[in-house]
Amino acid sequence: INDLAKTNRNLEKEICLKEINEKKILRQSTVITSVNHFFQKSMLAETYEEIARIFIPIALEVIPGQYCFVGEVTKARKDSLEILAISDQALHECNMVKMDKNVRLRNLKIRGIVSCVIQQDKTLIVNDPPSHPDFVQPPETHIPIDSFLGLPMKLGTEIKGIIAFAGKEGGYDSDDREAGEMLAVALVEALSLKKREDEKAKL
Questions:
Q1: For position 70, what pLDDT does the model report?
Q2: Is 110 helix (H, G, I), strand (E, B) or coil?
Q3: Nearest 5°: phi and psi at 63?
Q4: Are the beta carbons of 165 and 63 closer than 8 angstroms?
Q5: Quick one: which of 13, 18, 162, 170 has the most CB atoms within 10 Å?
Q6: Nearest Cα to Cα of residue 179 among 29, 76, 22
Q7: Number of helices (H) and strands (E), helices first, in the chain?
Q8: Alpha-carbon distance 122 to 159, whole Å?
Q9: φ and ψ of 127, to 5 deg
Q10: β-sheet bridge partners, residue 47
Q11: In which band, very low, low, confident or very high, does the pLDDT at 186 lie, cut at 50, 70 and 90?
C-alpha cells in the first residue's frame, strides 16, 4: 500500500510538472506570435510615435491590465521623459481623449518607482505600490495605481526609456515579467529601426 501511495504521489507530481510545462510553452508561443504581429504592423507605421501606439494594445493582450504607457528618456535631460504613447483607457480616465495623438507629453520628471526601473536598469513588479519606499503619491486626478510592472527599454547598455503597465487584477507575476521583457526587446528594435530610417531619409 505504501509503495502504491508513493507511486501515486510521484505520478501526481509528474502530471503537475507536465501541466506547468505545457502552460509555459503555450504562454511563450502566445508572446512570440504577438511579437511577430507587432513587427508586421510596425513596418507600416509612418511615425516613430505610431510604433509605440501600435505596441500598446498588442502588449495589453499578452499582459492583461488596464493601463500602459511608453516613455523615452529625453536627450537633453536624462532626468525627464517624453511619453510616446498611452493606452486608450488611461487617456479616457485622465480626460485626455481629445488630445492630439501627435503631441507628446514632454519633460515629465523621472521619479518614484519609474525612476527605479530606469536608473537601476531593472524590471520592477510592485503589487502594492504605496508600500514601496520610492512610491510617490500621484494627484487625485491620476489613474489608480494598485499594481505596477515597469520594464526598462534599452539598446545595448543604453537605457532608452520605460514600458509601464498598471491595473492588473490580482497583480503581476514572473510570467508577466518574462513576456514583458520579450516585448520590450521587440519595441526597442522597431523604434531603433524607424529612427535609422528617418535619419537616412534626411541625408
A1: 95
A2: coil
A3: -115, 90
A4: yes
A5: 162
A6: 29
A7: 5, 6
A8: 10
A9: -95, 5
A10: none
A11: very high
Which segments of 134-173 does DSSP mark as H helices, in order? none
Cell of 28: 511563450
CA distance 81 to 162: 9
Phi and psi for 132 in degrees, rounded to 5? -75, 135
Global pTM reads: 0.82
φ/ψ of 37, rounded to 5, equals -60, -45
Counting Cα atoms < 13 Å in the Cβ hemisphere of 156 gives: 2
Cβ–Cβ < 8 Å for 153, 67: no
Angle between helices 174-202 and 2-42 (to 10 degrees): 20
Q: What is the pLDDT of residues 126-145, one digit of tens each?
A: 999 889 988 888 767 677 78
Euclidean distance between CA atoms 113 and 132, whole angstroms: 8
Q: What is the rounded CA–CA span in Å between residue 85 and residue 91?
A: 10
